[in-house]
Structures
1.
Amino acid sequence: MSEYHLLLPEQLTLSNVAEEYALLRQDIRKARNGDTIILDCGRLHLLDSAGVAMLDQFNSLCQQRELRLIEEHCSADIGKIKELFHFSAPTSKKHAPRPSFFERLGQRGYALLGHLSEGLFLISNIFYWAIVSFFNKRLRRQGEVIRQSLQIGLNALPIIGLIAFLIGFILALQSAVQLRQFGANIYVADLVAVAMVSEMGPLITAIMVAGRSGSSIAAEIATMKVSEELDALQVMGIDPLPYLMVPKFYALLLTLPLLTVLANVIGILGGMIIGVTYLNIEIIPFYHEVISVLRYKDIMIFLVKSITFSAIILFTAAYFGLKAEGGAEGVGRVTTSAVVASIFWVIVADSILGLIFYFVEPVF
Amino acid sequence: MIKIHNLHKSFDEKVVLRGVDLDVFDGERLVIIGRSGCGKSVLLKHILNLMQPDKGYILVDNIAIRKVGQKDLFFLRKQFGFLFQGAALFDSMSVAENVALPLVEHTDLSPAEIERKVAEKLELVGLPGTQDLRPAELSGGMKKRIGLARAIVMDPKYVLYDEPTTGLDPIMAASIDKLIIDLSNQLKLTSIVVTHDMQSVEKVATRVVMLHVGKIIFNGDVQALHQSDNAVVNQFVSGSIEGPIQPKPVKY
């Protein structure tokens, strides 16, 4: 353990701190852990803020290297200056006050209100243009509705057929086991028919179409938004809503009910296979049972449902697609949100419509 | 003539334009320079009413574009051609369909006339015979040329270019510059070019305006630009690191 005796110069100011600091470091270069450094301030009589900062830094350097630092012969004036300029870490731990529960609630509510009004605005705009372009030939794009219908409808046929078949099949199988215990075999036909037509058919078709076409519509619009193509349309004096969204709207309105019809038929066929093979019901009685149980109310329910769902799918896709920002990441994000939101709203609407039709007999 | 008066625009906290006054005279080629993110593109989008200002107004041929209704706005926009930074061609259509789109939507021309007009404009931008290609098959420079053909297909009075030479090799950039000059001479266009490419400024500009932190700090011809005593302008023109602008993202 050795001692180093360092003598500070007469002045320690902005003009010479750098050199002095370098000298001091040079002096303690060989010091090891536990050595004592004695800093003699006896000569020092001129000190400024830079000097104090330098001393502070030297102090922390010594602490870092675990050296003991002692200051000697400090005059009262120098001590005062040191105290004045001494750097101290902020002691207050106070943060900006976090927004209270009600503030956050209000902010959320306000943002939600904004989204809601934006959405309503978009919905009414699309409806407006859908009606206007129905009567105005200029606003229509030749063959666009057909093209979109093929995209949305025809290409979805195999997958929707398969899913509907499986749903009808499994629905019949699960209920057949129960119904057989009571000898109520024939009622499998009623159950499958009603469940498919008024509930499962519209719902699974809408969910499949939301996943298939809702996502592609959202991604297409979002990509056009981020690559400025929507702006380009506007510059050319073409409103993107009637040009892009309305044909898709009509295509969805056309194809979703048709796809639902297909899903219903195939689902009932799936149920029939169980009826024929597992419950020994003949095809003809099964068919008659299905026809007798389906009333015009069920047909109405599935029509209203699938038309509502097609509007929901289009609006959510358009809403999220038009909100896209940034690049590829933004497109991915809004596509995900669009699919999640449209499936969510489809199920919500399904429950609401189910409730309504339970209590209300449709008059149309 | 376009008159921009005291234009202010901010996005949330970020103030982009803080009082821009600018007159664009008929027949000139005005170049707007400035650092990335200083609000040049935002200014262009205001002229087309793609964005609405927070304060201030824009007059196009003495018509306030903010006040016009939807129908007249489209009529007004038809006087403008806009070349987007990424050309913004529609991927689902061929080159010919892209260029013909404004004609199909807004005019009663027969298909043959449209075809003739498209061919003429493609010839003008130096890409004849590319009608049947898809945008995905084109290089960056070709895309910009097609975008330009689409911008001028309605025979606009004003053509706005958003960074026409960004991302192109020097030769292609030079040819785009030449195209801008030729078009403005042949078709008597008023051009507004936003760029930060100093080479193209020197070739294209009849007047230069520099935008810095949302305000216009220089307005004059190319010669005056080089002789300017404004330190910011000098640093931008010479492209040096030392100067009043520090090359780090500034939050203003």
Note: Chain A touches chain B through twelve residues (CB under 8 Å).
2.
Amino acid sequence: MKRLLFIFMLMMSGSSYAVDTHQLSDPKQQESYEILTKELRCLVCQNQTIADSNAELAGDLRRQVYEMLQQGKSKQEIIQFMTDRYGDFVLYKPPFQGKTSVLWIAPVVFLLLGLIMVFFVIRRKKAAANLHSQAGDLEMDAEKQKKIRSLLEKGDPS
Amino acid sequence: MLKYIIPLLLFIIMAVFLALGLNLKPNEIPSPFINKPAPIFSAPKLNAPEEKLSPADLKGKVWLFNVWASWCVSCRAEHPVLNELAKQNAVVIVGLNYKDEPNDAKTWLDTLGNPYNVSIMDQDGRIGIDYGVYGVPETFVIDKKGLIRYKHTGPVTAEDVQQTLLPLIAKLQAEP
């Protein structure tokens, strides 16, 4: 069990190191650099950001981000540069638009559906329980007790 | 009855989504370049580094822009198909030698044949970024006005040439 847990924890520990980092002298630009590289997708490895990936293309895109920041380009301009070339797919956070609305709305809809279902199930269970206790459970209990007593006194005939 | 229909319906909906998902190709990212002008570059030619080529030099011609490299395994699979296409003389084929060593690239062409009218060098991958290249080989079809009309990601097969590229090239050649 302990070993399993250990393996599980190993699996959960993501690689959080950066592969290579460009250092910008302006701390504000450095912050933008870190935010941007975590928002842009590495297109070769698809489920990694360019900050996490050590694919060659990711390295080139990091260099591109670094150079554009050095030239004083804004975050918006860099994101535009990337989507012009690679499409919205390069963004980890897809923009809200017609095509992607399902992506954004579906989780909320499913959550609401789930809550509604839980609400109805609980209500039905509650109603059933109420009905049950009202329908002369006491009578049943008296009968059962009588049977129990007789069993205790005579012993189980079977 | 409802008790059985609802799970069945849910299952069917799920099955439909999963079936659709199976047919999606997440590796093929739609290119934002279709019907947009081919990005400008001015890059040294592989066989004559002192000469440069830019898309403006190819105005009035239909051309294929094929991204390749000697380190790229799928390019090797694609290469005979390009050699065949080059024989037909249907279209100008320009190669983008992407992040490669010029000497390796030249050896590659010498041994496997050279389908390219001209190859240009992109050693640091900047032209690649401008064209949104993320998986080599990639092939762009560019029309006489310099607009990108089609993009193919991954190796071009003989069927792709017959069914997609040649008809498209014929159509574009007919355009003014």
Note: The helical segments of chain A are 2-12, 27-39, 56-70, 75-86, 101-134, 137-154.
